[in-house]
Amino acid sequence: MVALPTDVARSGKAARSAFETVFKSMVSVLERSLTQNGHPRRATAQGIASLCIGGMVVARALVDRSLADELRDACMLVALDLGGWTQNAQI
Description:
The mean pLDDT is 89. This protein starts with a helix and ends in an 8-residue tail after the last helix. Helices cover 73% and strands 0% of the residues. The chain has 4 helices and no strands. Helix 2 packs across helix 3 and helix 3 runs antiparallel to helix 4. It is mostly helical. The chain is flat, with a radius of gyration of 14 Å.
């Protein structure tokens, strides 16, 4: 999911549909594991999935490895908070 978004966006309908299917599956898994947090479960799961993918895409593009690590850590903390999970929880 992390390495493909740009290429998939420029691809045909079949590739975009396949990517969409995998993304929907990721959202579904996240949605089922959410604890109640007052937000719509599907929207929260979509946000978490997008944050995870987008955060990794940006981190991979950075030259500064410390900044990339900081960004990945920040994305993880926000995703865990949105999901109502603790940092040690298994998803």
